[in-house]
Amino acid sequence: MENTPPVIEPPSKPKYRLTASPEKCL
Asked: Which top-rank group of organisms is this from (predicted)?
């Protein structure tokens, strides 16, 4: 379960949470 991306880890970045693919934001 640690394979999950750091999308939900950083609560400071709600934008990443909305985007299923963090690669798009980068």
From this structure: Eukaryota
